[in-house]
Design a protein that fits this description.
This protein is an alpha/beta fold. The chain has five helices and 13 strands. The termini are far apart.
């Protein structure tokens, strides 16, 4: 300290002259002439003075401070990331456990590689028409399938299963409901009209099993009487074969006229003509009748004589002729019976009945 300087604010503790400065002989001078750098130091090994070493350490401290601040943020981030990591104990070391959030061990990766190396080569199909059960579908066809699925019509709500004649469908053509159709659901138009129950009975009664397009052979009929055919075609053929034609023919059995008459016949050739009552046998020419038998009956109507053609008679035949039945209103009698070859003539006398006289001969 200078004793001559202009300084008034101090406390004097001694005014004795210094013969030496305490500790000054051992302190570092301003030029650091006594500083020796530590060659093994991390940062200040290149310092050439205490001041230089202090500056190096200060700069490094600043660097470390910034690094520590950055590491603090990283530690927080890493702590969060670590919390999301899977523990090694969760690694699956088999091919059967499964799990979508756990990793497979490297050992199982080796097993998979070995399976792939020794597996059968897979053929990839790039179409949707293959029927193979072992080939794989290409990624391209996967895109095609996705496109089809993306444009598919979504299904409707579930409805009760069943069979219905009336359905309701939406704009996509999908059935949304079903019901039983009635005649009210059918619009009237040509060939689509319906019939009532009463009309159906009439149709059934008039058509039977006939569908409208059967042939006569397909239309059935019930055999009746002497007709044994069971279809119309056969019945017609049977009638044609068994009927007596209008032009004439041969009868193979008896004709029972009942109470009816045979009239307007030119001649009648027969074995026996039997009159059971009031029925008559008249001819267009009432004077001639043919009866080719050894006995028979005939009527004389509108005249007093009758010629009976008979192939069993000749001029030597004896013919007995008499009334076939009593008739109080008839006063006629047989006056003559004259035989000839193939015929005989009967003559009556008296008042003739306005109707006829029934005679018989043997």
């Amino acid at each position: 300290m200078s004793t001559t300087a202009n300084c008034t604010d101090f406390t004097e503790i001694s005014n004795a002259p210094f013969t030496a400065v305490p500790f000054a002989l051992f302190s570092v001078d301003a030029q650091n002439t006594r500083y020796v750098a530590n060659a093994a130091a991390n940062y200040i090994h290149i310092a050439n003075s205490f001041k230089d070493a202090d500056n190096i350490l200060d700069a490094q401290i600043k660097i470390n401070e910034a690094a520590i601040a950055n590491n603090t943020v990283a530690i927080v981030t890493n702590t969060t990331a670590v919390a999301t990591k899977i523990a090694t104990t969760a690694i699956v070391d088999d091919l059967t456990t499964g799990g979508s959030a756990v990793p497979l061990s490297a050992e199982q990766g080796k097993i998979l590689k070995n399976l792939l190396d020794t597996s059968v080569t897979i053929t990839v199909e790039d179409n949707l028409t293959s029927t193979s059960a072992t080939n794989a579908l290409s990624e391209n066809q996967g895109k095609v399938l996705k496109g089809l699925l993306d444009t598919k019509v979504p299904k409707n709500s579930v409805i009760t299963a069943g069979t219905k004649t009336k359905i309701t469908y939406d704009a996509n053509g999908l059935v949304t409901a079903g019901a039983d159709a009635t005649t009210a659901d059918i619009n009237a138009s040509a060939d689509r009209n319906y019939v009532t129950d009463a009309e159906l009975v009439v149709i059934s009664n008039t058509s039977g099993a006939n569908s409208g397009d059967q042939t006569a052979a397909e239309v059935t009929t019930t055999a009746t009487g002497a007709i044994i055919a069971t279809d119309v075609d056969s019945a017609i053929a049977e009638l044609e074969d068994e009927k007596l034609a209008l032009a004439g023919g041969t009868m193979v059995g008896n004709i029972d006229m009942g109470t009816k008459n045979i009239s307007n016949a030119t001649s009648i050739t027969t074995g026996n003509i039997i009159d059971s009552g009031s029925n008559k046998i008249n001819t267009e020419n009432d004077n001639i009748v043919t009866i080719n038998s050894i006995s028979g009956r005939f009527r004389i109507t509108g005249t007093n004589f009758k010629t009976i053609n008979n192939n069993k008679v000749n001029e030597n035949s004896i013919i007995i002729c008499k009334p076939a039945s009593a008739d109080s209103s008839n006063t006629t009698y047989i006056s003559e019976v004259e035989a000839a070859e193939g015929s005989f003539t009967v003559t009556l006398e008296g008042t003739l009945n306005s109707l006829s006289t029934l005679l018989q001969f043997v």
